[in-house]
Design a protein that fits this description.
Number of helices: 6
Distance between the termini: 57 Å
Number of domains: 1
Strand content: under 5%
Largest sheet: none
Oligomer: single chain
Structural class: mainly alpha
Length: about 160
């Protein structure tokens, strides 16, 4: 069941990124900021959320809080910021954003997913390359930001 939710989330993130035309540089670094927030605040916020009467068994509440903290910064930035003008940039940027989001979410929530044998093999393969994927994505995000041109004011 969890793998279906993960697939829906991944498709949704790709579509949001693609349809809003947002550049990967800003969104990728926002995902990294979300990961830092998740690492620092999940254990603090989970009891606070639980005190509000929210209880989950599957997926665990802590996993949901961690995923929310990871995804909140880029979701906020989907509504403003630099955009791609060309279709190829939109596609590549959306794929990179989705892949980085997937890897970061699996790093935090991978152990709590209920997986069959095939899904487990795929997730294990993705996780073996997770450090390389994150490093490459951060470099790509920085490169994308360097290529972003701010509009010139009329003179």
């Amino acid at each position: 069941m969890h793998i279906i939710l993960l697939i829906i989330l991944v498709v949704g993130l790709f579509l949001l990124s693609f349809l809003t035309k947002r550049r990967f540089g800003v969104l990728g670094l926002a995902l990294c900021a979300g990961m830092l927030l998740s690492t620092s605040w999940t254990n603090v916020l989970t009891p606070i959320v639980a005190e509000q009467g929210i209880t989950l068994l599957s997926p665990p509440l802590q996993s949901v809080v961690a995923a929310t903290l990871i995804l909140l910064p880029p979701i906020v930035l989907l509504f403003s910021g630099p955009t791609y003008n060309k279709m190829a940039g939109r596609i590549v940027g959306s794929i990179a954003f989705t892949l980085l989001a997937l890897v970061l979410l699996l790093q935090v929530n991978g152990p709590t997913l209920l997986l069959d044998a095939t899904s487990s093999t795929i997730v294990a393969s993705v996780m073996q390359l997770s450090n390389l994927t994150v490093a490459a994505a951060v470099c790509m995000a920085l490169g994308d930001i360097l290529m972003t041109r701010s509009p010139k004011g009329k003179g």
